[in-house]
Amino acid sequence: MKKYLFLLLCFFLSVDIFAQKMVTVTGNVVTTDGHPAENITVMINGTNYGGMTDDKGNFEFKAFPGNFNLIVFSIIHHQTEIPVCITADKENHFPDIKIMENIHELQEVVITGTRTEKRLSEAPIQTIVISQREIQKAGAISTIETLQDHIPGLMVTPNAMGNNLRIKGLNSRYILMLVDGERLVSESAGGNVNLDQVNVND
Asked: Which helix (H) or strand (E) holds 59?
């Protein structure tokens, strides 16, 4: 008798679960300094329900109502876990979830014309490092705009063969452009490189 009672109880519980409808869960994730956090995973702990934030830090996914722990994480951020109550009868919006960057900061090392590693502060020639934070703060929408904002004496003249760069009087023929150590192929004899092919978000 106990076995039948247990099976009957399980049956009614399963019917109750399947009778529930999934609802929409929305919200947004921000960094500790208030900026939108992009490409952050937001999931209900112990389930497959979740999504990722867009470039404005917003997320949206569907889940069943109930009390859960929402986990928020990425490769470069500490995991954040917050308790949430998802209901079927009202909007489930969770705004301004803060996530902290996981920083293991080392002194910046650059490769200069000396062909040896040196700390940025010890580089014998003028060396400029443009960080992700500086690009975001300036609101640059292209690689060319980023370079113009941070490199003094840079002039850019677009033409059909790419971008004619000039730094302190030297034109594109004397400027080496590398991406991940690979040289950008010039489309002209003058050495012009189409910098539009380099996404500023990368």
From this structure: strand 58-63
My answer on whether 95 and 113 are in the same domain is no
Cα(46)–Cα(124) distance, rounded to whole angstroms?
A: 54
What is the Cα Rg of the chain in Å?
26
186 and 127 share one domain: yes
Asked whether residue 1 is domain-assigned, the answer is no
- Let me know if residue 5 belongs to a domain: no
pLDDT, one tens digit per residue, over 56-81 is 999 999 999 999 999 998 878 888 99
Q: What angle do CA 97, 89, 71 make, to 5 degrees?
A: 25
Per-residue HEC secondary structure of 98-109 comes to EECECCCCCCCE
Note whether residue 7 is domain-resident: no
Which is nearest to 72 in space by CA: 84, 64, 62, 63?
A: 84
Alpha-carbon distance values, 114 to 102, 117, 152 (Å): 33, 8, 22
CATH no. for residue 163?
2.170.130.10
Instruction: Report CA torsion sign: 103, 109, 111, 112.
Output: positive
Single residue among 99, 134, 163 that ends a domain in this structure: 99
Give the separation between CA 54 and CA 28, rounded to whole angstroms: 9
pLDDT tens digits for range 89-127: 878 999 999 998 876 655 566 666 666 677 777 777 777
Predicted TM-score (pTM) of this structure: 0.44
